[in-house]
Amino acid sequence: MPENESPSTDKFDTPMGRELTYRELLKLAYASHFIPYLKILEEEIGREKVVDTLRRLAIVEAGEYARHVVAAKGKADLSVFRVWTSNSTGRSWKASPPAGCATS
After folding, report:
1. CA–CA dist 42, 36 (Å, integer)
2. Residues 101 and 94: beta-carbon distance below 8 Å
3. Which of 14, 22, 98, 102 is 20 to 30 Å from 63 by CA-CA measure?
4. Which H or E run contains 97?
5. CB count, 10 Å around CB of 95?
């Protein structure tokens, strides 16, 4: 940084307090290409078809996550699908999603 520049006070320019894993870095790099791709796809096939495709993807991922939770908990009961719980440190997962499943 040149001497005449002051450090940024923007929270997005400050360190996060932890380093990313290679997996997390790869996901971020992949996601940075995904949004521009969706915009091009929207121009090509239309917004409704893009939204419909994303909706179908969410349904597939939700099914994968549900199968994982049922297998991990050993029962197909709605009580196992209470995913978020509040605690003193904020929110946390009650059941871990499978690798590759969307979590947010």
Report:
1. 10
2. no
3. 22
4. none
5. 15
Contact assessment for residue 77 and residue 84, using Cβ atoms and an 8 Å cutoff: no
Burial class from Cβ neighbours inside 10 Å (0-12, 13-18, 19+) for residue 70 reads middle
- Residue-wise DSSP of 15-29: --SSPPPHHHHHHHH
Residue identified by tokens 């796809």 is 41
Are 33 and 42 in contact by the 8 Å Cβ rule? The answer is no
- Candidates 99, 95, 100; CA nearest to 73 is 95
Rounded to two decimals, what is the model's pTM? 0.49
Q: Name residues whose C-beta falls within 8 Å of residue 41's C-beta, 6 or more positions apart in sequence.
A: 50
Q: Which two tokens stand for residue 88?
A: 């003193």
CA distances from 20 to 13, 15, 24, 32, 77 (A): 15, 11, 6, 16, 35
Give the pLDDT confidence of 74-98 residue by residue, as tens digits.
888 777 766 544 444 444 444 455 5
